[in-house]
Amino acid sequence: MDYYNCLRNQLNCEYAFCNQGICIKKMQEGYAQVEKTVKKEDLDIDRTPNNSLYFHLANAACTAAAASHGYNAETVSFSFTLLNNAHVDDRLTANAREMLQLQSIRVFDFKITDQKGTLICNGTFTMNQTCVAI
Question: Would the pLDDT of 31 be above 80?
Answer without folding.
Answer: yes
